[in-house]
Task: inverse folding
């Protein structure tokens, strides 16, 4: 995906790739929220995880590319550091938030598979909702660029 995402970004533009990636991420997270207590990894978790991973790649790579290409050449390292730090802080805050949602709804009930699954389902649903909000924000705020102006990395 590291090779494919920049080529797709060059062909379709970063905004389209970020929105598409976030939509796939939301779909994968929504799919994970449907996991059953008696489900299997191969049928319930793996396909949804692959969809979410594809979405993350399609969203994050163009985001990083846009952030770095928007900075002056001498500030490329600074821009990269800020973006990567934002990813790390966002991940930590996101994990804390979904944990705060999941635990009261049953994710701490290790002896009760139904309650445990309900808690995780709520967390994945909340994460999917955040991805949908990110789609709306991206669509409203990111300016489209002509695909031929975006350089493939």
Result:
């Amino acid at each position: 995906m590291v090779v494919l995402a920049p080529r797709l970004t060059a062909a379709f533009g970063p905004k389209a790739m970020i929105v598409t990636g976030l939509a796939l991420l939301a779909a994968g997270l929504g799919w994970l929220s449907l996991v059953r207590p008696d489900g299997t990894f191969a049928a319930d978790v793996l396909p949804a995880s692959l969809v979410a991973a594809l979405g993350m790649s399609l969203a994050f790579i163009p985001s990083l590319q846009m952030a770095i290409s928007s900075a002056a050449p001498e500030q490329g390292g600074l821009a990269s550091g800020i973006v990567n730090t934002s990813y790390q802080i966002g991940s930590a805050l996101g994990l804390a938030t979904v944990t705060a949602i999941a635990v009261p709804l049953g994710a701490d009930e290790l002896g009760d598979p139904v309650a445990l699954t309900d808690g995780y389902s709520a967390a994945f649903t909340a994460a999917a909702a955040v991805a949908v909000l990110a789609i709306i924000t991206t669509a409203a705020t990111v300016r489209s660029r002509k695909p031929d102006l975006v350089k493939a990395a």
Summary: The chain has one domain: 4-141. The helical segments are 4-12, 14-32, 41-70, 76-107, 113-141. The chain is about 80% helix and 0% strand. The two ends are 12 Å apart (CA to CA).
